From TrEMBL:
Span of the signal peptide: none
Pfam families named among the record's database cross-references: ketoacyl-synt, Ketoacyl-synt_C
Annotated source species: Ruminococcus flavefaciens 007c
Protein name in the entry: 3-oxoacyl-[acyl-carrier-protein] synthase 2
CDD domains assigned: KAS_I_II
Amino acid sequence: MSRRVVITGMGAVTPLGTGVEKFWAGIKANKLGISFIDMYDTERTGVKIAGIVRDFNEEDYYDVKGCFDKKEAKRMDTFTKYAVVAAHEAVTDAGTDFSDLDPYRVGVLVGSGIGGVDLTLVEHNKYLEKGPGRMSAFYIPMMISNMAAGTISMKTGFRGANFDVTTACASATHSIGEAFRKIKDGYLDACLAGGTESTRVEFTFGGFANMKALTKSDDLTRASIPFDKERSGFVLGEGSAVLVLEEYEHAKARGARIYAEIAGYGATCDGYHMTSPMPSGEAAAKGMQLAMEEAGLSPADIDYINAHGTSTGLNDKYETAAIKLALGEKDARRVKISSTKSMIGHLLGAAGAVEAVVCAKSVQEGFIHATVGYKVPDEECDLDYCGNGNIEQEVNAVLSNSLGFGGHNATLCFRRVTD
Protein backbone atom coordinates (compact mmCIF):
# COMPACT_ATOMS: atom_id res chain seq x y z
CA MET A 1 0.00 0.00 0.00
CA SER A 2 1.35 3.42 -0.97
CA ARG A 3 -0.68 6.53 -0.27
CA ARG A 4 -0.16 10.26 -0.73
CA VAL A 5 0.48 12.49 2.29
CA VAL A 6 -0.40 16.16 2.54
CA ILE A 7 -0.03 18.98 5.06
CA THR A 8 -3.40 20.35 6.18
CA GLY A 9 -2.55 22.25 9.36
CA MET A 10 0.42 24.04 10.92
CA GLY A 11 1.32 25.68 14.22
CA ALA A 12 4.44 27.47 15.38
CA VAL A 13 6.11 29.15 18.33
CA THR A 14 9.22 31.00 17.11
CA PRO A 15 11.62 33.86 17.82
CA LEU A 16 9.71 35.79 15.13
CA GLY A 17 6.42 35.31 16.93
CA THR A 18 3.90 32.80 18.16
CA GLY A 19 1.53 31.55 15.46
CA VAL A 20 2.24 30.69 11.83
CA GLU A 21 0.74 33.94 10.55
CA LYS A 22 3.06 36.11 12.65
CA PHE A 23 6.06 33.87 11.94
CA TRP A 24 5.49 33.85 8.18
CA ALA A 25 4.93 37.62 8.08
CA GLY A 26 8.30 38.05 9.77
CA ILE A 27 9.97 35.71 7.29
CA LYS A 28 8.53 37.59 4.30
CA ALA A 29 9.63 40.90 5.81
CA ASN A 30 13.14 39.52 6.48
CA LYS A 31 12.87 40.43 10.15
CA LEU A 32 15.50 39.29 12.62
CA GLY A 33 14.13 37.15 15.41
CA ILE A 34 17.48 37.06 17.16
CA SER A 35 18.14 39.41 20.08
CA PHE A 36 20.52 40.09 22.95
CA ILE A 37 20.46 37.60 25.82
CA ASP A 38 18.94 39.12 28.95
CA MET A 39 18.21 35.98 31.02
CA TYR A 40 21.67 36.01 32.66
CA ASP A 41 25.01 37.83 32.55
CA THR A 42 26.75 36.79 29.32
CA GLU A 43 30.24 37.75 30.44
CA ARG A 44 31.42 34.22 31.25
CA THR A 45 30.39 32.53 27.99
CA GLY A 46 30.98 35.50 25.71
CA VAL A 47 27.83 34.51 23.78
CA LYS A 48 25.59 37.56 23.63
CA ILE A 49 22.89 36.75 21.07
CA ALA A 50 20.16 34.11 20.82
CA GLY A 51 16.90 33.32 19.03
CA ILE A 52 14.59 33.86 22.01
CA VAL A 53 10.81 33.46 21.95
CA ARG A 54 9.65 36.82 23.28
CA ASP A 55 5.86 36.85 22.90
CA PHE A 56 4.88 33.55 24.52
CA ASN A 57 2.76 34.17 27.61
CA GLU A 58 1.60 30.88 29.10
CA GLU A 59 -1.23 32.64 30.94
CA ASP A 60 -2.86 33.28 27.56
CA TYR A 61 -3.52 29.52 27.25
CA TYR A 62 -4.89 28.72 30.71
CA ASP A 63 -8.48 28.93 29.51
CA VAL A 64 -7.87 27.52 26.02
CA LYS A 65 -9.33 24.06 25.58
CA GLY A 66 -6.64 21.67 24.40
CA CYS A 67 -3.75 23.61 25.97
CA PHE A 68 -3.14 23.75 29.74
CA ASP A 69 -4.37 25.37 32.90
CA LYS A 70 -2.23 26.99 35.60
CA LYS A 71 -1.81 23.78 37.58
CA GLU A 72 -0.84 21.76 34.51
CA ALA A 73 1.60 24.44 33.40
CA LYS A 74 3.55 24.04 36.63
CA ARG A 75 4.09 20.40 35.69
CA MET A 76 5.30 21.06 32.13
CA ASP A 77 8.73 22.13 31.01
CA THR A 78 8.86 25.02 28.55
CA PHE A 79 9.68 22.78 25.57
CA THR A 80 6.46 20.84 26.20
CA LYS A 81 4.38 24.01 26.54
CA TYR A 82 5.69 25.26 23.22
CA ALA A 83 4.79 21.95 21.55
CA VAL A 84 1.30 21.80 23.05
CA VAL A 85 0.51 25.33 21.83
CA ALA A 86 1.94 24.63 18.35
CA ALA A 87 -0.05 21.38 18.14
CA HIS A 88 -3.25 23.14 19.22
CA GLU A 89 -2.79 25.75 16.49
CA ALA A 90 -2.07 23.05 13.91
CA VAL A 91 -5.21 21.05 14.73
CA THR A 92 -7.32 24.22 14.76
CA ASP A 93 -5.80 25.23 11.43
CA ALA A 94 -6.60 21.81 9.95
CA GLY A 95 -10.27 22.34 10.78
CA THR A 96 -10.88 18.87 12.23
CA ASP A 97 -10.25 16.91 15.40
CA PHE A 98 -10.26 13.66 13.37
CA SER A 99 -13.13 12.31 15.43
CA ASP A 100 -14.25 10.47 12.29
CA LEU A 101 -11.11 8.33 12.49
CA ASP A 102 -10.13 5.52 14.82
CA PRO A 103 -7.94 7.33 17.43
CA TYR A 104 -5.39 4.53 17.06
CA ARG A 105 -4.99 5.63 13.42
CA VAL A 106 -3.90 9.15 14.38
CA GLY A 107 -0.38 9.53 15.77
CA VAL A 108 1.92 12.11 17.36
CA LEU A 109 5.63 12.21 16.47
CA VAL A 110 7.29 15.27 18.01
CA GLY A 111 11.05 15.28 18.44
CA SER A 112 13.38 17.18 20.74
CA GLY A 113 17.14 17.25 20.63
CA ILE A 114 17.65 17.91 24.34
CA GLY A 115 14.38 18.00 26.28
CA GLY A 116 14.26 19.65 29.69
CA VAL A 117 17.88 20.67 30.10
CA ASP A 118 16.99 23.93 31.85
CA LEU A 119 14.88 22.06 34.40
CA THR A 120 17.70 19.56 34.89
CA LEU A 121 19.99 22.37 35.97
CA VAL A 122 17.41 23.72 38.42
CA GLU A 123 16.84 20.31 39.98
CA HIS A 124 20.54 19.50 40.06
CA ASN A 125 21.16 22.67 42.03
CA LYS A 126 18.43 21.63 44.50
CA TYR A 127 20.11 18.24 44.78
CA LEU A 128 23.49 19.78 45.56
CA GLU A 129 22.16 22.36 48.00
CA LYS A 130 19.40 20.46 49.81
CA GLY A 131 19.73 16.81 48.90
CA PRO A 132 17.67 14.44 46.74
CA GLY A 133 14.64 14.65 49.03
CA ARG A 134 14.00 18.24 47.93
CA MET A 135 13.97 17.51 44.20
CA SER A 136 10.63 17.82 42.44
CA ALA A 137 8.57 14.65 42.16
CA PHE A 138 7.73 15.86 38.66
CA TYR A 139 11.35 16.30 37.55
CA ILE A 140 11.64 13.11 35.51
CA PRO A 141 8.26 13.28 33.70
CA MET A 142 8.81 16.98 33.01
CA MET A 143 12.37 16.56 31.72
CA ILE A 144 12.20 13.53 29.43
CA SER A 145 12.11 14.59 25.80
CA ASN A 146 9.24 12.28 24.81
CA MET A 147 6.86 14.14 27.13
CA ALA A 148 5.99 16.73 24.50
CA ALA A 149 4.54 14.01 22.24
CA GLY A 150 2.95 12.26 25.19
CA THR A 151 1.27 15.41 26.47
CA ILE A 152 -0.08 16.29 23.02
CA SER A 153 -1.68 12.84 22.90
CA MET A 154 -3.32 13.46 26.28
CA LYS A 155 -4.71 16.76 24.99
CA THR A 156 -5.94 15.51 21.62
CA GLY A 157 -6.93 11.91 22.33
CA PHE A 158 -4.78 10.68 19.43
CA ARG A 159 -3.61 7.20 20.43
CA GLY A 160 -1.69 5.98 17.41
CA ALA A 161 2.10 5.71 17.14
CA ASN A 162 3.57 8.21 19.58
CA PHE A 163 7.26 8.80 20.07
CA ASP A 164 10.08 11.30 20.22
CA VAL A 165 12.87 11.21 17.68
CA THR A 166 16.13 12.51 19.14
CA THR A 167 18.76 13.01 16.47
CA ALA A 168 20.11 16.40 17.55
CA CYS A 169 19.51 19.04 14.88
CA ALA A 170 17.72 16.54 12.61
CA SER A 171 15.12 15.49 15.22
CA ALA A 172 12.12 17.34 13.78
CA THR A 173 12.86 16.43 10.17
CA HIS A 174 13.19 12.77 11.08
CA SER A 175 9.92 13.03 13.04
CA ILE A 176 8.08 14.45 10.05
CA GLY A 177 9.68 11.93 7.73
CA GLU A 178 8.73 8.98 9.91
CA ALA A 179 5.17 10.29 10.22
CA PHE A 180 5.03 10.63 6.45
CA ARG A 181 6.09 7.00 6.04
CA LYS A 182 3.54 5.72 8.56
CA ILE A 183 0.73 7.37 6.64
CA LYS A 184 2.10 6.49 3.22
CA ASP A 185 2.50 2.82 4.17
CA GLY A 186 -0.94 2.56 5.74
CA TYR A 187 -0.12 2.40 9.44
CA LEU A 188 -1.77 5.77 10.21
CA ASP A 189 -4.32 8.01 8.51
CA ALA A 190 -3.12 11.26 10.09
CA CYS A 191 -0.34 12.40 12.38
CA LEU A 192 0.88 15.46 14.24
CA ALA A 193 4.59 15.78 13.53
CA GLY A 194 7.31 18.28 14.34
CA GLY A 195 9.81 19.31 16.96
CA THR A 196 10.32 21.46 20.02
CA GLU A 197 13.18 22.92 22.05
CA SER A 198 13.86 25.42 24.82
CA THR A 199 17.36 25.99 26.18
CA ARG A 200 17.64 29.31 27.99
CA VAL A 201 20.27 28.86 30.68
CA GLU A 202 23.97 29.75 30.77
CA PHE A 203 24.76 26.07 31.32
CA THR A 204 23.54 25.14 27.83
CA PHE A 205 25.15 28.10 26.11
CA GLY A 206 28.40 27.33 27.90
CA GLY A 207 28.44 23.79 26.56
CA PHE A 208 27.89 24.85 22.97
CA ALA A 209 30.31 27.76 23.31
CA ASN A 210 33.10 25.49 24.54
CA MET A 211 32.64 23.41 21.38
CA LYS A 212 33.34 26.61 19.42
CA ALA A 213 29.94 26.12 17.79
CA LEU A 214 28.35 29.47 18.73
CA THR A 215 29.14 32.90 17.36
CA LYS A 216 30.37 35.52 19.82
CA SER A 217 29.37 38.36 17.56
CA ASP A 218 27.67 41.33 19.20
CA ASP A 219 26.20 42.57 15.90
CA LEU A 220 22.64 41.31 15.41
CA THR A 221 22.89 41.82 11.66
CA ARG A 222 26.13 39.82 11.32
CA ALA A 223 25.63 37.08 13.90
CA SER A 224 23.70 34.42 11.95
CA ILE A 225 25.04 34.68 8.41
CA PRO A 226 24.92 31.27 6.70
CA PHE A 227 27.23 30.75 3.71
CA ASP A 228 28.86 34.16 4.27
CA LYS A 229 32.67 34.08 4.36
CA GLU A 230 32.63 35.95 7.69
CA ARG A 231 30.37 33.43 9.47
CA SER A 232 31.65 32.55 12.92
CA GLY A 233 29.22 30.04 14.41
CA PHE A 234 25.52 29.56 14.89
CA VAL A 235 23.01 31.47 17.00
CA LEU A 236 21.23 29.19 19.48
CA GLY A 237 17.44 29.44 19.29
CA GLU A 238 14.27 27.95 20.73
CA GLY A 239 10.68 27.27 19.71
CA SER A 240 8.42 24.65 18.21
CA ALA A 241 6.45 23.79 15.11
CA VAL A 242 3.91 21.03 14.55
CA LEU A 243 2.31 20.00 11.26
CA VAL A 244 -0.83 18.01 10.59
CA LEU A 245 0.00 15.30 8.07
CA GLU A 246 -2.99 13.59 6.52
CA GLU A 247 -3.72 10.93 3.95
CA TYR A 248 -4.62 12.75 0.74
CA GLU A 249 -7.94 11.07 -0.04
CA HIS A 250 -9.21 11.71 3.49
CA ALA A 251 -8.14 15.35 3.28
CA LYS A 252 -9.73 15.72 -0.14
CA ALA A 253 -13.00 14.10 0.96
CA ARG A 254 -13.45 16.54 3.83
CA GLY A 255 -12.55 19.56 1.68
CA ALA A 256 -9.38 20.37 3.60
CA ARG A 257 -7.14 23.27 2.64
CA ILE A 258 -3.84 21.70 1.55
CA TYR A 259 -0.56 23.57 1.90
CA ALA A 260 1.68 21.08 0.13
CA GLU A 261 2.35 17.41 -0.34
CA ILE A 262 5.22 15.58 1.33
CA ALA A 263 6.39 13.34 -1.45
CA GLY A 264 9.79 12.03 -0.35
CA TYR A 265 12.06 11.47 2.61
CA GLY A 266 15.71 10.51 2.77
CA ALA A 267 17.61 9.51 5.90
CA THR A 268 21.31 8.63 6.04
CA CYS A 269 24.27 8.82 8.41
CA ASP A 270 27.78 10.12 7.79
CA GLY A 271 29.42 7.60 10.13
CA TYR A 272 32.26 10.08 10.24
CA HIS A 273 32.57 12.38 13.29
CA MET A 274 30.73 13.44 16.46
CA THR A 275 30.12 17.01 15.29
CA SER A 276 31.68 17.63 11.87
CA PRO A 277 29.75 16.73 8.72
CA MET A 278 31.46 14.46 6.20
CA PRO A 279 33.74 16.73 4.11
CA SER A 280 32.74 15.16 0.78
CA GLY A 281 29.04 15.61 1.56
CA GLU A 282 28.41 12.10 0.22
CA ALA A 283 25.97 10.89 2.88
CA ALA A 284 23.95 14.13 2.99
CA ALA A 285 23.81 14.06 -0.81
CA LYS A 286 22.48 10.50 -0.70
CA GLY A 287 19.69 11.66 1.63
CA MET A 288 18.66 14.32 -0.88
CA GLN A 289 18.78 11.83 -3.71
CA LEU A 290 16.64 9.33 -1.81
CA ALA A 291 14.04 12.01 -1.11
CA MET A 292 13.90 12.97 -4.80
CA GLU A 293 13.70 9.36 -5.91
CA GLU A 294 10.81 8.59 -3.59
CA ALA A 295 9.02 11.70 -4.88
CA GLY A 296 9.62 10.63 -8.48
CA LEU A 297 11.52 13.84 -9.19
CA SER A 298 14.84 14.65 -10.81
CA PRO A 299 17.31 17.40 -9.83
CA ALA A 300 15.92 19.51 -12.68
CA ASP A 301 12.51 19.52 -10.94
CA ILE A 302 13.75 21.10 -7.71
CA ASP A 303 13.05 24.83 -7.46
CA TYR A 304 14.28 25.56 -3.96
CA ILE A 305 16.37 24.08 -1.16
CA ASN A 306 15.82 25.19 2.41
CA ALA A 307 19.33 24.50 3.62
CA HIS A 308 20.42 23.38 7.05
CA GLY A 309 22.65 26.46 6.73
CA THR A 310 23.85 26.90 10.30
CA SER A 311 26.42 29.70 9.80
CA THR A 312 29.28 27.49 10.95
CA GLY A 313 32.42 27.14 8.91
CA LEU A 314 32.21 23.40 8.30
CA ASN A 315 28.45 22.88 7.89
CA ASP A 316 27.94 25.47 5.19
CA LYS A 317 30.99 24.39 3.20
CA TYR A 318 30.16 20.69 3.36
CA GLU A 319 26.43 21.18 2.74
CA THR A 320 27.35 23.11 -0.39
CA ALA A 321 29.44 20.13 -1.51
CA ALA A 322 26.53 17.79 -0.76
CA ILE A 323 24.09 19.84 -2.84
CA LYS A 324 26.50 19.72 -5.79
CA LEU A 325 26.80 15.95 -5.47
CA ALA A 326 23.05 15.42 -5.11
CA LEU A 327 21.89 17.67 -7.94
CA GLY A 328 24.92 17.81 -10.20
CA GLU A 329 26.85 20.97 -10.96
CA LYS A 330 24.34 22.44 -13.43
CA ASP A 331 21.22 22.12 -11.28
CA ALA A 332 23.09 22.97 -8.08
CA ARG A 333 23.97 26.34 -9.61
CA ARG A 334 20.43 26.88 -10.92
CA VAL A 335 18.44 26.05 -7.80
CA LYS A 336 17.59 28.72 -5.23
CA ILE A 337 18.96 28.04 -1.74
CA SER A 338 18.36 29.92 1.51
CA SER A 339 18.66 29.43 5.24
CA THR A 340 15.80 30.28 7.61
CA LYS A 341 18.36 30.25 10.42
CA SER A 342 19.63 33.59 9.13
CA MET A 343 16.55 35.14 10.77
CA ILE A 344 15.77 32.99 13.80
CA GLY A 345 18.99 31.16 14.63
CA HIS A 346 19.25 27.40 15.11
CA LEU A 347 16.30 25.88 16.97
CA LEU A 348 18.12 22.54 17.40
CA GLY A 349 15.51 19.75 17.62
CA ALA A 350 12.78 22.13 16.44
CA ALA A 351 14.69 23.55 13.48
CA GLY A 352 13.48 21.12 10.82
CA ALA A 353 9.83 21.59 11.80
CA VAL A 354 9.94 25.38 11.64
CA GLU A 355 11.72 25.09 8.30
CA ALA A 356 9.05 22.65 7.10
CA VAL A 357 6.48 25.37 7.76
CA VAL A 358 8.57 27.70 5.58
CA CYS A 359 8.76 25.11 2.80
CA ALA A 360 5.01 24.48 2.83
CA LYS A 361 4.29 28.21 2.71
CA SER A 362 6.85 28.68 -0.06
CA VAL A 363 5.02 26.11 -2.18
CA GLN A 364 1.62 27.57 -1.34
CA GLU A 365 2.52 31.20 -2.07
CA GLY A 366 5.32 30.95 -4.63
CA PHE A 367 7.79 32.74 -2.38
CA ILE A 368 11.45 32.08 -1.51
CA HIS A 369 12.93 34.08 1.32
CA ALA A 370 16.40 35.58 1.30
CA THR A 371 19.35 34.45 3.36
CA VAL A 372 19.25 37.58 5.45
CA GLY A 373 22.57 39.20 6.33
CA TYR A 374 24.50 37.48 3.54
CA LYS A 375 27.11 39.90 2.18
CA VAL A 376 30.56 38.42 1.68
CA PRO A 377 30.82 35.54 -0.84
CA ASP A 378 32.90 32.52 0.10
CA GLU A 379 34.75 30.70 -2.68
CA GLU A 380 33.91 27.41 -0.95
CA CYS A 381 30.20 28.30 -0.81
CA ASP A 382 29.58 29.34 -4.38
CA LEU A 383 25.91 28.62 -5.08
CA ASP A 384 22.86 30.90 -5.20
CA TYR A 385 21.94 31.56 -1.54
CA CYS A 386 19.38 34.27 -2.33
CA GLY A 387 21.68 36.92 -0.93
CA ASN A 388 20.08 39.68 -2.97
CA GLY A 389 16.63 39.45 -1.44
CA ASN A 390 13.37 37.54 -1.60
CA ILE A 391 12.21 35.87 -4.80
CA GLU A 392 8.66 35.48 -6.01
CA GLN A 393 8.30 32.61 -8.44
CA GLU A 394 6.30 29.42 -8.84
CA VAL A 395 7.63 26.83 -6.40
CA ASN A 396 6.66 23.30 -7.40
CA ALA A 397 9.25 21.21 -5.57
CA VAL A 398 11.39 21.85 -2.51
CA LEU A 399 14.05 20.00 -0.55
CA SER A 400 14.61 20.72 3.15
CA ASN A 401 17.85 19.54 4.75
CA SER A 402 18.69 18.84 8.39
CA LEU A 403 22.12 17.62 9.45
CA GLY A 404 22.54 16.63 13.10
CA PHE A 405 25.54 16.08 15.36
CA GLY A 406 26.48 12.43 15.11
CA GLY A 407 26.20 12.52 11.34
CA HIS A 408 22.40 12.22 11.20
CA ASN A 409 21.08 13.48 7.85
CA ALA A 410 17.44 13.96 6.89
CA THR A 411 15.85 15.49 3.82
CA LEU A 412 12.18 16.07 3.07
CA CYS A 413 10.76 16.70 -0.38
CA PHE A 414 7.70 18.95 -0.61
CA ARG A 415 5.75 19.59 -3.78
CA ARG A 416 2.69 21.37 -5.04
CA VAL A 417 -0.38 19.15 -5.01
CA THR A 418 -1.59 18.04 -8.43
CA ASP A 419 -4.27 15.43 -9.06
